Structures are given as structure tokens and as C-alpha cells.
Amino acid sequence: MAVYTQVSDEALSRFLASYDVGRLTSFKGIAGGVENTNYSVHTDRGAYFLTLYEKRVARADLPFFLGLMEHAARNGINCPVPVHDRQGRVLRELAHRPAALVTFLEGISVNKPGVRQCASLGEALARFHRAGEGFGLKRANALSVTGWRPLFESFQAHADDIARGLAKEIEGELTLMERQWPKDLPQGVIHADLFPDNVFFLDQNVSGLIDFYFACNDALAYDVAICLNAWCFEADSSYNMTKGRALLRGYTKVRKMQDNEIAALPLLARGSALRFFLTRAFDWLNTPKEALVRPKDPLEYLRKLRFHRDVTDVSAYGLAGDAR
Amino acid sequence: MAVYTQVSDEALSRFLASYDVGRLTSFKGIAGGVENTNYSVHTDRGAYFLTLYEKRVARADLPFFLGLMEHAARNGINCPVPVHDRQGRVLRELAHRPAALVTFLEGISVNKPGVRQCASLGEALARFHRAGEGFGLKRANALSVTGWRPLFESFQAHADDIARGLAKEIEGELTLMERQWPKDLPQGVIHADLFPDNVFFLDQNVSGLIDFYFACNDALAYDVAICLNAWCFEADSSYNMTKGRALLRGYTKVRKMQDNEIAALPLLARGSALRFFLTRAFDWLNTPKEALVRPKDPLEYLRKLRFHRDVTDVSAYGLAGDAR
């Protein structure tokens, strides 16, 4: 949360002068977002969003993220679009950090998505996958199965501080994932972090997608699995099959899933739960108690993982034969 | 800094439905501001600013602050204006906190105000003082001379942790202020916190004033003294007489100062420095080391206090006879 990097009025005015965006009329630091510093910027021509990339984002990845936003927008996705400066650059520097100015996307994310919103999210995800086709840049998923064990080992000694017996349970999950993780599924550009706070709605329909800073190349069905975890569980960690069915039907309406993708869903969802458990557990153990940012509860994702572990058939997710 | 209170999309939509402001299109938490939670709110009709008042602001004071914004705006001050709901209320409740929706004021505050900006600030301050005339509500200044000793006593035992000998020096200042603080100066509504971050400029000219949450009834010249401290010292704590002269000339162009106000300036400026020293020292000693909000350096205001202590004649501030 919070503005990590203060930008002065002079520095911002100088920065904006190299763009054709008119004259600065106001700027305010935006709270929320733990990775980067964000400002809402108004000029006499319109509203923009300025991001300064802090150290958790690798500079080398920025051309991928910014290029993807442009590519997706050109292919019909409503998302923030990087603004080019007069020299044609989208990646710049401000306050000694990589920085980019993007268009301000109006929209509201929902705290508690309903069934129809899950259906629309499924469609939007599939459209995003189709829009990613033909994008020239590549980025490996640093948080896929091979990245999980090193992450776990960085806090393994303290894992039982979160819950007793955790180290052993996670060790078992990792071993299984490393053996069984599917390698032959259709690949593409995935969002990899399409949680409700990264999706805007107008009533029941998705109106925009934001925050492409985990996007990468990976199995498309893995993105579906991430969304099942992020959208279809209730606050008490129970799986809402109606929402799951709506999401999957929405998705398959736009992009048909292959049989091997569908068969892999329980494992992908279990792996996705493990991935978010691991990053949350890491943050949980490494956030000072006094910090203003409350880390998210890792156990929420452990409960989801256990749900998927018990799934014996994909019909448990609500995907009926007719939707495939 | 930061959003203290999270407002859900449903709660905000319900809240806005009782206003005639159109339909919510986006809202974002604003970083910065240690007292309250602020959101930038867009609807299809325009831009607004939503404030949830946290516990440092007394609910009983809110009618004064909100009423003053309306009164000042009606009298020509460019400032945020509270929006009335359909029942005519400006003070509402949201997320279990007092809340108010105000118009979004475009504008940029400057980090390093120049001489011409100080001149414009002086004029704007005097216009604000005139605009306050006739405002029906009253609010005592809780941070005037009688409030300083209790504040000091709350951290006196640790004062020497900030700088050696501090407790003794401050004790002496308090005793002197309590004896000599002037009581017969022209009174009115003062802003009491008109620092550069609460003033918007368009080039060299003040375009707007914000953050009325310290406003109260007190000596008008005390407000001038606060501004001398906030605007006319350089980063190395040296007093810039050119800026001081510009500010005072700007002020007296709009509102003539009486002889006793001018004569009291060194004491008022010294007292104002003490007041900001005390609140900063309190925050300095009471902010956890790991907090994201870095407290402001109290010693900056001790250095200013010492400057004023050595002033023997108001001409030191740059106020020549012709400007009075």
C-alpha cells in the first residue's frame, strides 16, 4: 500500500512536458498496491495513471508488461494503455525509478462477485487469452512449479509458526506437483493474477482488466484455475459450484477447452492454491508486525488446496459435459 | 498516510445513491494525509473527494469545518465544497465513520515555493481572513498557548531523547509564552495549517486552498506567523527575508495589519514555531520505528523558534514601514 516514492511537482511537470498530454492540473498518490508507487494524474486533456516501478518488479520485464497492455488493447481488451512520449517511448524514468504513464481506466472492482459476474469474468478471461495471440514478447512464469520449492525453502524453518504440521504437508504437495505438473497443455499469455481487485465491472459485466504485472507465458488452463480459486470460493473457504460452473461456461463459450485441459483442472487448481499459499506465507512471515500493510492470510489458500486435493472428478467444479 | 478505512463498492454505491451526483464510475484510496481516509471518486457527472474522518478529528468539530468550506466558497475562496445529499445533509456516515463528500479541487501544491508564490500566498491568506467574516460557528484553537503545556508534559520525560537540553529549553519557552501571549489582537477564522501542501498554485498564483481541519477562531496575525514559518524558511532553516517581505506585503495589500499585530509578530512566530515543534516532537516519539509514515523532524521547528527568539525588531521579517 501507499506511495513509496514521492514525486515533486517540478519533477512531474518536467516529466510530462515530454508527452503530448497537455498541462498538469493535479496529481495524487494512490493507496493500495504493494508492488509499485501509483499516482492519479489529471491534465487539462484528461486523466492518466502514473506508475513508478519499485524493486519487486524487474526492469527487464517492463517491456513485456507494457507491450502486452498495448497488444491487448489493440485486440479489443479494455485495459490501461501506455502513453507514448514525443520520442515514442513508453518506458521512462522518474525519481530514479522506471516509470510509465498509462491512460486512466474508469471502473469499479467488486468485493463479492456474484454468479453473473463470474460468468462474465470467464468470458473476459477467454477473450484475454485470445487477445494475447500473436504477442511477440515472451516471459517465463517465475512463479510456476519450478519456482515453488526455492520459495518454500526460504521460509521452511518457520512454516510451522503459521500452523502445526505445515512444513510436512507442503513438502508433500511440492513433491507431488513436481512429479505430476502437466507439460503438454495449450500455452499462451496468461494474466496470472486476475483477482477481483484487478477486474472492473459495469453492473454484471466485466468492463476492464488491470494490473498486468504478473502476466507471463504459461498454460492457459492454469489461468482458469487461478480464477476458480480467486472467484468461486466463499469467505468461509467453501467452493461455490454455481459460480464455478458460471465461470467455466463463460470461458468455454469464448474459447473451447481441450480434454487434457479439463482433466488437468483439479491439479492446476491445487497447484495454483499452493502458489498463492507460498507467496502469502512468505509475506506473512516477513512483514514487520507494525507495518501498515496487513499481509493476506495464507491459510485461506491452504484450505482451497485441500479442497482441490479431495476432488476426484472435474464435475466437482461444475463443468458439465455440454459446456466442454 | 494511506487508506485507514476500506470502503466496499457496495457500501459506496449505496452511500452515493442518496446524493444527486450520478453514477459511480471509479474510486481510489488516496495516500497521504495522516488524519483521515480519503478517496478520489469519479461519477459520470464529475470528480469528487470523499473523506472518512478517523479518530483524530472530533466529530463535534465537523459542522464547523464543513460549514467553513461552504462559507469560504460562497465568499470567493476556491476550495472544496461539501456536496449536500437529497435531504440537505453534508455530514454523513460511511463504514461506521463520519463522512463527507466534497467537490474535487484541481490544483498542484509546490514543494519549494518561490518569492512570487509567497506574495500570492500572503494575498490569499488575507482574502481567506476576510472571507471568514460573518461565519456563524465558533471553534476554539485547541493548539493555542494553553494547550501547549499539557502536550509537552505528555512527552517531557523523553524530550532529551530528541536533543540534549531540550526539556529545559522548552520549559523556558512555555513559561515565557504563557506570560506574554497577546490577548488583544484582532480575531477571526484562521486556517491554522496553511502549509505549502495545503495550497494549490497555477504558475505563480494561488488557485485554491484545502484541508480546513485545523481551522478555528484565533488572532488573525497568528495565522500570518504560521505562514512565515511554513513558507519563508529555506531547507537549511535560514530565514529568507525576500520571501517574508513578499508574503507580508501580499497580506497587507488585502488586509491592513494593526500596529499591535505587527509588533506581536516575533512572539507569534516564536509561539507558532513552538506549537509545531511540540506536535512534531510528540509524533516523533510516538511513531513506531517500522511505520511507513516517517514523522517530520521536530528540530526544524526548534531552529525556527531560535531564529524568532533572536529577532529584536519586526523589520527582520522584511516588513518595511510602507507596507503596514
Q: What this model shows, in words?
A:
2 copies of one chain form a homodimer. With 324 residues, chain A is α+β, with helices and mostly antiparallel strands. Chain A has helices at 9-17, 62-74, 115-131, 145-153, 159-162, 166-180, 220-231, 241-254, 259-286, 299-309; strands at 24-30, 37-43, 46-52, 92-94, 97-103, 187-190, 199-202, 205-209, 216-219. Chain A binds chain B through residues 1-3, 8-10, 24-32, 40, 42, 105-112, 200, 288-293, and chain B through 1-3, 8-10, 24-32, 40, 42, 105-112, 200, 288-293.
SSE ordering of chain A: HEEEHEEHHHHEEEEHHHH
Q: Supply the number of helical segments of chain A.
A: 10
Radius of gyration of chain A: 20 Å
Query: Based on CA inertia axes, which overall geometry of chain A fits?
Result: globular
Measure the end-to-end span of chain A. 40 Å
The quaternary organization reads as: homodimer
Strand content of chain A: 5-15%
The pair of chains with the biggest contact is: A-B, 32 and 32 residues
